[in-house]
Amino acid sequence: MRTTAPMIALDLPSPKRTLAEAMRNRSADVVTWVKSLINRRAANRLLDLDDHILADIGLSASEVHEVLRNHRMHQDPSMQLTMLARKRALRCLI
Question: N or C terminus: which one in the chain shows less Cβ crowding within 10 Å?
Answer without folding.
Answer: N
